[in-house]
Amino acid sequence: MKSASGLPDTPSGLPVTLGSLRSHKKYGDAATAAGNVVTRTVKDELRENLICKLERREPLFSGIVGYQDTVVPQVVNAVLSRHNFILLGLRGQAKTKLIRLLVTLLDEHMPYIAGCEIRDNPFAPICKACHELVREKGDETPIAWLSREQRYVEKLATPDVTIADMIGDIDPIKAARKGHNISDELTVHYGLLPRANRGIFAINELPDLAGKIQVGLFNIMQEGDVQIKGYPVRLPLDLMLVFTANPEDYTARGKIITPLKDRIGSEIRTHYPVTLDHGMAITEQEAWLKRRTPVEVRVPDYIREVIEQLAFSAREDKKVDKRSGVSQRLPISAIENVVSNAERRALVSGETVAVPRVLDIYAALPSITGKLELEYEGELKGGDSVARELIRLSVGKVFTKFFDGDNLNAVVQYFDLGGSLRLDETSPAAKMVAELGKIQGLLEKTKKLGLSASEPDAVRAGAAEFILEGLYAHRRISRSEEAGFTAEVRRREAPADDPRTKAAKRNYQ
Prior knowledge:
The chain has 509 residues and is of the alpha/beta class. The protein has 26 helices and 13 strands.
């Protein structure tokens, strides 16, 4: 935001000229001589602010879940060591989110010479234009201020990025307008790196950057300066460089050239959530579930677990490409789609409560299949078939957690005796509960999921369906799109005079 004078607005109480900056109690000469924030480097600034947070036991990198004992300590070590570093990990591992949170370690405000494209230090300018401005105006040199967010510059690496984009180029139009020699430093149009001076510069997907552009980063990282278009323009930039990369990209699309990799101080490996609880916490944090809707949305814990288990199961499945990984975006997108399907059903049925069911997870296949990179065996089966198998496997694992050792023979016997149940996705909850109530002992078993008899029909119906899906997952009953839930195939093929069938009928009656 700019004032009427065309200069950026200055936060209240902060100096607006070089003279007032010199006399300021925090930024003045005495403080500068003592190593104040004005003269220290960005890496020193990050280090000192991090030390203060550690001493005060303040939380670091809010919103990052599951990295407290693994990745975060390594990032802390890199910052304390004043390293440029790279986060190396598969897709959907919060690499970009983490590097963006580095801005929380910067000062709240930073002074620079107003109008300077490379945010020059008022006490130690490095560009020719600022040298001339300070020589001309002295203590009246205007000062502007940057917030910590404005000191973060991010670039997504793509093969078409040029040296001019990253470092800069000679601008002949600027030279013609101002009458400068083409080789004059004042004719330079600065690229992203100089414009990130005195801040954090992040490059996402570093291997996608062409090799010759990666070479252009050498001087910045080692000698701390740049050269533009072959002219001896030396800019000792003050930068913290951070990168992200996917190990798959080393061979799939490009690679980090060895000399550049050698100049990166720390290589930090990221990972997917180690526990189901961590994964559920991330999904809960990132998914769009608190939405404006005319119905009340209730997502049962067992549904959340099934959706999260789906990602864990996919990461272990041999039909899914492990080199590509299974992004944490899968459960996030899936639970959003699952809730939307339940919301749609409630709106169509005229109900006040929307409760996701296992059936809604199958309806959310479009948000799952696109996030699975399949191996050859998986390609033969097809994305939908693989995703359905993973859902079934996940339901089975969560079902075991709640009902391991429970006697559900009465429910199974209902189907063994010829009973069947087809649950329509759009059926009102009251109708579903009436149908499910015909199965002896089924609704009573929902208490194991923490339900009471006073729960709304939509909650009870979803819980009962989960039990049936769990039995199907363990192959104790069967299910098809046409017939719904029926007896498991092997049981139905038993002759009517089979002793086991007669015994089952007597027990059920």
